[in-house]
Amino acid sequence: QSYCHRLQHDMYFLTSTSRLNEQVIDKIVLQLNRVYPQILTNEEAEKFRNPKASLHTRLSDLLKHLQRKGDRHCQEFYRALQINAEQLFNDLPSRKILKTPDPTEIDTDKEQYMLNDRGPVFFLACFSMAAGLALFWYCCNSETQVIGRARRILGFSPIIIGRHVRNICMLYLEDMSRN
Questions:
Q1: Quick check: 17 and 65 in contact, CB under 8 A?
Q2: Beta carbons of 32 and 45 less than 8 angstroms apart
Q3: Which of 36, 40, 43, 173 is close enough to 32 for a disulfide, judged by CB 3.0 to 4.6 Å?
């Protein structure tokens, strides 16, 4: 697998969730600029070290620029990444593929990310839907006595809701049972 393809595969991993901080990116850019063979010119290095641009933008532009330049440039990027951020280099998805003997094996880190991609709003929507269906089923069942059971539940609820709210709910239920 060429280094350009590996970099394309690792691009999302490198640019997501601020895995690289500004100091590490500056070190990598300086190494690509100053070490033989010179991968980045002085103008390109200044562009990728510009503090006015966001870190994510600079890193994305750097990776795209290296991919356009060719395989040798991408290889030098990996070398600079290994020198300046060895732990991150070892955690790269392309490195994990190279380490695994079976290419058909499922990448558990990627699978875990895919399963946990939904946020708290999704959880609350699913929970609300389930609670609503349970309440609907409970209230529509003709065999249950809603008020009697509700009184028992509210009687044990000073921990869940405040005492004043519980008293108001109990008075409301008593009025409902009289009607």
A1: no
A2: yes
A3: 40
pLDDT in tens, 122-173: 777 777 777 766 666 666 665 555 555 555 555 555 555 566 666 777 777 7
Residue spans of beta strands (DSSP E) within 42-145: none
pTM for the predicted model, two decimal places: 0.54
Residue with tokens 């004043």: 164
What CATH number does the domain located at 3-97 have? 1.10.533.10
Residue carrying structure tokens 């049972």: 177
Distance between CA 41 and CA 101 in Å, rounded?
Answer: 39
Domain residue ranges of the chain, discontinuous segments joined by +: 3-97
What angle is formed at CA 123 by the lines to CA 122 and CA 129, rounded to 5 degrees? Answer: 90
Q: Which two tokens stand for residue 41?
A: 């010119």
How buried is residue 28: exposed, middle or buried, by Cβ count under 10 Å (0-12/13-18/19+)? buried
User: For residue 46, what are its two tokens?
Assistant: 């200044």
CA distance readout (Å), 78 to 67, 141, 162: 12, 65, 59
